[in-house]
Amino acid sequence: MYKKITHNITEEHYAQPAGAEIPNPHNKPNPHNPNYIPSTNYYVDGTLGLDSELPQYVLNENTMLFRMDCRSAWQKWAYSLMNYAVSLNGNLPGTDQVKGRMHKNAVAIGDMLIPYYGPTSARLVGTSLIAIDDIGMHYVEALKKGEPTDEIVASWAPFVDDFASVMNQLNPNNWPVSLITDILLALVQAWQDQLTARANGDFTADEIAIDTIAKLVITGIPDHGKGYDSLADIFSRGIIAQFPSMFQE
Fold first, then answer.
1. Cα–Cα distance between 244 and 18 in angstroms, integer?
2. 51, 56, 58, 99: most buried, per Cβ within 10 A?
3. 3-state SS of the chain?
4. How far is the CA of 75 from the CAs of 36, 93, 133, 150, in angstroms?
5. Residue range 172-188: average pLDDT?
C-alpha cells in the first residue's frame, strides 16, 4: 500500500558565512562522537555539532525568537493529527480544511529551511512530513471504521527513516539518523496511544499521551538518555550550530 521514497540531496546547501567562534562557558560538550575534537569545540570537518558549545554571539533575542518560532511550527504540525481525529470522528463540516491545514503545517516547517538549504531541500522535508501525516490520517480513519491498523502502523517506519535520511544529509553533525528516527518513532507511538485512547473514551490515557507528545515535540524530556530535549529544539539548534554567523546581531 505504501511505498518508501528516498532522496539524495546534492544541491542548494548554502555555505556558512565566516565568523569567529566564541566558546560558551555555560555549555559542557559531551564528546561521544569520534568526529568531535573537544580541544577545538569543532568536528573534524570544521563545523559545530551536537557536542559543540554554541558561540556566545548567538545567545541573543533573534536566536530566541527563531527557536520559539520553531517550537510553534512543530507544535502545529504534531497537534494537527489530533485535530483531524476530532473533526473526523465528530463528523464536522470542516474536516477537509483540517486535513489541508495539516499539510500546510508540514510545508511550513520545510519553508523554514529555505534561507539555509534552499527551496529544493525545503520541499523534500515538507513532502516527507506530509507522508508521515497521511499515514496518521489513515490510522484515524481505520480506528473510526473499526478496521485493523497493523499494516498502517508498520508503514510508518519507512517514512520516518526517509525523513531522518533527508535531515541527516542536510546537517549530519546535528541531525544524526539515529536521533531523528528515535524521537519520531516515539512521537508515532504517542500519536497511536492518544488516538486509540480517545477513540476508546479513555480520557486519562488520552491526557497522558497528549502530555508525552508535548514533551517530545515542544518542551523536551529532562535528562533524556539519548541526548535530545525536543524535536523542535533539535531542529532549531541544529540550524543555529551549522550557521551560527547568520544569527549574529
1. 9
2. 58
3. CCCCCCCCCCCCCCCCCCCCCCCCCCCCCCCCCCCEECCCCEECCCCCCCCCCCCHHHCCHHHHHHHHHHHHHHHHHHHHHHHHHHHHHCCCCCHHHHHHHHHHHHHHHHHCCHHHHCHHHHHHHHHHHHHHHHHHHHHHHHHHHCCCCHHHHHHHHHHHHHHHHHHHHHCCCCCCHHHHHHHHHHHHHHHHHHHHHHHCCCHHHHHHHHHHHHHHHHHCCCCCCCCCCCHHHHHHHHHHHHCHHHHCC
4. 31, 24, 14, 26
5. 94
pLDDT, position 26: 31
Q: Which residue has the cell 568526529?
A: 35
Pick the more confident residue, 4 or 173: 173
State pTM to two decimals: 0.83
- What is the reported pLDDT for 8? 54
Mean of the pLDDT values across residues 170-179? 93
In this structure, the number of other CB atoms found within 10 A of the CB of residue 146 comes to 8
Q: Measure the CA dihedral 77/66/177/103, to 10°.
A: 20
- pLDDT at 54 (0 to 100): 87
